[in-house]
Every structure is written in structure tokens, then in C-alpha cells.
Amino acid sequence: MHTQSTGDRETFCVKEQATGGKFPFRVEVNVLKIMQACQEPSNLDDLFEIVLTHLLDIHHVRQAEILLYNRKNDLVLVAEGNKSMYKGLNRHKIMVQSWMMDSAIRRSTRRIRIPTLFLVTSIALKTSEELIGFLNIQLDRIHSNNNELFANFNLIGFHLSTKIKEIMLQDEIKELAG
Length: 178
Prior knowledge:
alpha+beta; five-stranded antiparallel β-sheet; 30% helix; globular
């Protein structure tokens, strides 16, 4: 295992996979930062803020949002983040609102969004038993042959869904014990 720099991004290369080294899988350093930082938070808002902050640091990611199913089986937007340039610096605008999961209100604001023509990829957030939501990632350009980028997003989605389920179960245990 080693890190290497490829142009404007660093990658972490795992050469020996289950296929005996035939499939090199490159994981960006920001993906590893997400996986490491996800171990710390004990509530959903902190988790979403950390994940979106590091996700927006990944090259070509323009916007990301996390949607989860509530108890009524409605899909609810619980966090979103945008990356914008200001005086040559990347700035992140992140909004987390996990309270929306149990709220009767469907949306916190009534703003009109201008349609965009960017590629959006949706990663299913699922555990072994159920689909718990989606991670939508908007890219600043279309990546037709970049399977490594989408593999990184799937890895983030898998790790995020596991941590979300863990926090939800901890909250449920506290609620039953309290």
C-alpha cells in the first residue's frame, strides 16, 4: 500500500485485492479522511457535516445532498452542501437538518431552484436489511471513463450508511432506556 500523486489529487493505492492484484483500486485521500472522521461523531448532524465537508474537497464534486427515509417511509432531505469559488478559494456552504426526519414539515424553506445541467450521480445508502436513503453528488463535468471516482463514491456511501444506521440504533436504545 502506498500513496501517490496524480496531477492535482493524491490517491491511495491498494494493489492486493481479493482478485489477487489484478484490479488496482485507487482511493482518494479525501475518501480516507471521510472514513477516518466518521468514527468520531455520535449524532447525525455532526456526521453529515463532516462527510459533506470532506466530500466537497474531492476534485470535481460541486454539490452533495443526503436524503433519508423517515418512519413514514418518506424521503427527506437532511443535509446538503455546495462548493463555490470566492476570490480563488473554495468555500463550502453546508446545511444539516436531521430534525427533519421526525418532523411533520416536509421542507424547511420554499426556495425556487434554477435547473442545472450538471451530472448527478445517486448512491444508494443501504444496510444489509434495507435501503435507508440516497447520497446525491453533483459533478462539475461529465466523467465518462472515470470508474475510480464512482468506486470512491460507492465506498463513501457504504461507509456513511453503516455509520448512519449505527447512530440511529444508538439513539433508539437511548430512547428505550430513557
